[in-house]
Structures are given as structure tokens and as C-alpha cells.
Design brief:
- The chain has helices spanning about 45-55, 90-120, 140-155, 185-200, 305-315, 360-375, 400-415, and strands at about 1-5, 25, 35-40, 60-65, 80, 130-135, 160, 175-180, 200-205, 215, 220, 225-230, 245-260, 265-270, 275-285, 285-295, 320-335, 340-345, 350-355, 420, 435-440, 440-445, 455, 470, 475, 485, 490-495.
- A hairpin with a 6-residue loop joins strand 25 (about 475) and strand 26.
- The N and C termini lie far apart (about 45 Å).
- The radius of gyration is 22 Å and the shape is globular.
- Strands 5, 6, 7, 8, 13, 14, 15, 16 and 17 form a nine-stranded mixed sheet that branches. Strands 3, 4, 9, 10, 11, 12, 18 and 19 form an eight-stranded mixed sheet that branches. Strands 20-21-22-23 form a four-stranded mixed sheet, with no helix packed on it.
- The protein has a domain at about 420-495: Rieske Iron-sulfur Protein (3-layer Sandwich).
- Helix 1 (about 45-55) packs parallel to helix 4 (about 185-200), helix 1 packs parallel to helix 6 and helix 2 packs across helix 3.
- About 25% of the residues lie in helices and about 30% in strands.
- The chain is an alpha+beta fold.
- Bound molecules: FE2/S2 (inorganic) cluster (FES).
Length: about 500
């Protein structure tokens, strides 16, 4: 067991959560025999499920391809809300009144579970209760706000109209949601991790679970044998139905200091598409305003431009004295608005998964942990049917489904024509990555700060789309299903499990 000073994550930019914390790196291989459950992925979903199972007397193991907190949990903006990106009204129209009520119950239970974990395990994670404000800047947005209000009231979520919002942005109409919350996601994760290890849980880092073989009722990956498997990998690995039901998005966040020294004591959201949000956090004894937005599909837009636009937006409304942090993170938008949590479709019995949390990973990751722990322990869950990953999509969402998939299909073809033709790799500057075609050969090329060129085959190992360069996170991002690779071609995030092939450039000009 060793302590580390900084937690690595799936991008080159540092989130404020990585610095202040020393996660425990724990490798244990001393246990012999079969595990009750293998949990693949050590983010909020995996740790929540693993802790619940371990405490219920099941022997579990977490395998993470990198380390605990490496994925989106280390890059989230860590909001805890009683409402979600998919509004209760939208859930009602797609899944009926009962579905909307269950969705609200699930979110409420997730809220309670986080609170219970913090209290029970005495997790010091900067948890703070805050009022949440949602405002509209024009007539259309005001109408949307009315729908959000009516939908929330109907499922028993407290909301009220207000004329006071602690924002410099002029608004037309606003809602107040009392009792929202925020925390430090990696401090929370560390708390779960400590409790899990204390309960006898086992963690294997740097352990990729590529394929799972079946032998009678056992699931086998390498030397790990388990009676059940939970994929808590943000999106399950390899080719599966979710490649066509969830779209990967990047979201951008900046942590800035304000000249005034006055920070709003609230969680604030506008109603634009994509929306901006504002919250504060004290990092290293310094108060920061965290502002996020400018989301776009992974690999589809220029991340540099997204940060420039976000900074422009912040400067329009706030006097900034310093930009301390900027980072981006990934999330998956489900085609019908609800997450997929439960039995993995078209897989052997005893294999479970969760994906499609939209921008609500803290609550939905927590409730997913609860549901998956219940199912893996052979129990039932009241949310099993609503979030069933094998559900038939409601007709209403079909147009959206087609749109998401047409987009993917477009990139299967279009990216093959988006290459920069060049006769030489020599023009590549230090720190720059580019998709190039040299002498008819397609190369994903990056020149590091020492001047060495790292040349890779740009064909994504998941389903053969062409990856795009992310100049901010210094990664190769796939526009189809969101797999991401580092500059050496190693997988940062799935659904790919195999590295990009290296290309020998010695023969290239
Ligand atoms: Fe599916 Fe790249 S992530 S093809």
C-alpha cells in the first residue's frame, strides 16, 4: 500500500480534484479462491457497488485498467441535484407518470446514499448543501422552465419560482431548488475506498479486463474468477448495443479567481443548449468559481475553441483575476433520456453494467452502484425495469436515436477524408498532434516536447473509425463511440480495450 501525491486522470489537463488528495494505491493478489463479484472500474459506480456488496458479506475485487478515480469521477464538476438533465416532464412523456416518479425516487435515493456513506464512514469530502438556481434568458427558455417546474412538482421534488438569483447574467424567469449539494469527488471516492479496503475488499490497479470467459457458472478474466461481474467502466468495453444507444460528449470547466473576492453561495444553471453552470469550491485554501459548459460530441469540435469560448463567456459576466484550472471530461448521453443500469444485454447470466448517465454522474453513478449491488447479490431492485439496459426504446425517442446514429455513421465515412495531406512529418511542432497522410499512409502523429515523433495508426481499435486530435487533453479521441488514447496509443477510456498500433516513421520523410 502506498500513498501518491497526485491522482492521474484520463487527460493531460489537471482538474483541481487531483492535487489535494492522496488516494491509496492497493494491489492485493493474496486471496485465493473465487470471488462473489468482479467489479470492473474504480469510479463512483464501481466503488459504491463494491462497498455495498463487501459490507453485505460478499467477497469482491475491483479491477481498474489504470487507478481508482482515473476516469470521469476525477474530472466531474461534482453536482448533486434533485433534478437531472433529462427533465421529469421528458421522462413522463417517454416512460409515463410512474416512470417519472421512479426516476425522482432513484435520484432521491442516490442523494440519501451519498449522505449515508459520508456520515457512516465519516468521509471528509467538502460536502456542502446549497440552493440551486435554474434561470431562463428568453421566452422559449421560460416555457421550458415552466415544464421543469410542473414536472418537478408532480413527482414531489420541491421547486419554487424566484426573482432573486445570485448571477450577473440578466434573466427573465428563474426556479429555486432548495437543498442541492456539492462535494470533492475524489475525497468522497477515497472515503469509499478506505471503507471498502477496511471491509476486506480487494483492488487490482493497472488490470485491464478485456474478455471474460465462461466456465460453468464462473466468469474468468486472467487469474480472476468470479460468480458475477459488474462493468462500472462508464461505457461497457468492446462492441455492444450501447455503441448505438449512447453518444459520448466532452464538457469543459474552468476554475477562476474573482477580483471582487465575492463568490455566489449556490449552484447556478442557465437554460441554454448546451447549458452553462457555476459553482464554487475551496481548493488549497483558495476560493474558486467553477464555470462549465460548451459541451460537444467527443472528437467532433475543437477543444481549444471550446475553452476560448468558455473563457469569453466567463469574462463577459465576471471580473477575473486569474484562471487557475481548465479541464474537460466525458459523459454519455442515452438515446431515450434514461441511464442503462442492470443486466448486460446479450451477455451471459451474472454480468451487469451501467452507462448513459448524461451530466448527472454523481447521482446516477451512486444509484447504479446500489442497483448493481442488489442485482449481483441476487436481490430485486425497484428500478430494475425502468433502467433495464435491454428495454425497448419508447417511440418518442426514435428521431433522436436516428440522429445520434446517423452522426456516428457519418464519421465512419467522413473521417477517412479529413486527413491533412503532407509530404513530411518534419513540420510538426513540439506539443502538436495531427492526423496526416504521408505517401498514402494515414498517421496519427504527435511530436513531444523532446522533439520525438510518436506515430500511430489512426484507426480506432474498437470499430475502425478514425481518431481525432484533442489538443487540450493531448489525446486521440474517437468521434464514434468515445474511445480515447494517449500519445503513445494506450487506451485512456473505452469502449476500446486495445492500443492504437505504433507506426515506424524511420522510413517516412
Ligand atoms: Fe467505436 Fe472508436 S470508439 S470506433
Amino acid at each position: 500500500m502506498k500513498n501518491t501525491n497526485i491522482i492521474p486522470r484520463d487527460g493531460a489537463l489537471e482538474s483541481p480534484w487531483q492535487k489535494e488528495i492522496a488516494l491509496i494505491s492497493h494491489v492485493a493478489s493474496s486471496l485465493t479462491g473465487d470471488y462473489d463479484c468482479l467489479i470492473v472500474g474504480g469510479g463512483i459506480t464501481g466503488l459504491t457497488a463494491a462497498l455495498l456488496l463487501q459490507k453485505a458479506g460478499k467477497q469482491t475485487i475491483i479491477a481498474d485498467a489504470h487507478c481508482i478515480g482515473f476516469g470521469t469521477t476525477g474530472g466531474t464538476s461534482a453536482h448533486i441535484n434533485t433534478f437531472a438533465d433529462t427533465t421529469y416532464k421528458e421522462v413522463e412523456s417517454a416512460f409515463g407518470e410512474e416512470g417519472a416518479q421512479l426516476f425522482a425516487d432513484a435520484i432521491n435515493e442516490a442523494f440519501g446514499l451519498i449522505r449515508k456513506n459520508i456520515d457512516h464512514h465519516q468521509i471528509d469530502c467538502d460536502y456542502e448543501s446549497k440552493p440551486g438556481y435554474l434561470y431562463a434568458e428568453n421566452g422559449d427558455e421560460a416555457k421550458l422552465l415552466d415544464d421543469i417546474y410542473n414536472g418537478a412538482i408532480k413527482v414531489g421534488v420541491a421547486a419554487a419560482y424566484t426573482s432573486e438569483v445570485p448571477t450577473p447574467v440578466p434573466f427573465k424567469k428563474a426556479l429555486l431548488f432548495h437543498g442541492q449539494a456539492q462535494f470533492h469527488p475524489l475525497k468522497y471516492l477515497t472515503g469509499l475506498q478506505k471503507a471498502y479496503l477496511a471491509a476486506g475488499g480487494v483492488i487490482r490497479e493497472n488490470t485491464t479486463v478485456e474478455k471474460i470467459k465462461q466456465k460453468e457458472s464462473l466468469h474468468i478474466s486472467g487469474d480472476i474468477r468470479a460468480r458475477a461481474v459488474i462493468y462500472a467502466t462508464h461505457t461497457p468495453p468492446n462492441i455492444n448495443v450501447f455503441n448505438f444507444e449512447c453518444a459520448p460528449y466532452r464538457s469543459y470547466v474552468m476554475g477562476v479567481k474573482l477580483r471582487s473576492g465575492k463568490y455566489p453561495d449556490a449552484l447556478i444553471y442557465d437554460s441554454q443548449e448546451p447549458y452553462h453552470y457555476v459553482r464554487t469550491h475551496n481548493i488549497d485554501g483558495e476560493q474558486l468559481l467553477l464555470v462549465g459548459g460548451l459541451d460537444h460530441k467527443t472528437g467532433h469540435e475543437d477543444p481549444e475553441k471550446a475553452f476560448a469560448e468558455l473563457e469569453k463567456y466567463i469574462r463577459k459576466y465576471y471580473h477575473i483575476s486569474d484562471v487557475k484550472y481548465r479541464w474537460s471530461s466525458q459523459y454519455y448521453v442515452p438515446v431515450d433520456g434514461l441511464p442503462y443500469i442492470g443486466k448486460m444485454p446479450m451477455a451471459a447470466d451474472g454480468i451487469y453494467c451501467a452507462t448513459g448517465y448524461n451530466g448527472n454522474g454523481m447521482m446516477l453513478g451512486s444509484i447504479a452502484g446500489q442497483i448493481l449491488a442488489d442485482l449481483a447479490a441476487g436481490k430485486q431492485s425497484p428500478y430494475e425495469k425502468l433502467f433495464d439496459p435491454g428495454r425497448i426504446k419508447p417511440v418518442d425517442s426514435f428521431s433522436e436515436f436516428v440522429k445520434e446514429n446517423a452522426d456516428v455513421a457519418y464519421h465512419f465515412v467522413a473521417d477517412r477524408f479529413g486527413l491533412h495531406k503532407t509530404d513530411s512529418l518534419k513540420r510538426l511542432e513540439k506539443g502538436q498532434g495531427k492526423l496526416v497522410e504521408v505517401n498514402g499512409k494515414k498517421i496519427a502523429a504527435y511530436r513531444d516536447q523532446d522533439g520525438t515523433i510518436h506515430a500511430l495508426d489512426p484507426v480506432c481499435t474498437h470499430a475502425a473509425c478514425i481518431v481525432n486530435w484533442n489538443s487540450e487533453e493531448k489525446s486521440w479521441d474517437c468521434p464514434c463511440h468515445g474511445a480515447r488514447y494517449d500519445t503513445s496509443g494506450n487506451v485512456l477510456t473505452g469502449p476500446a480495450t486495445k492500443s492504437l498500433a505504433k507506426i515506424n516513421t524511420e522510413s517516412q520523410p
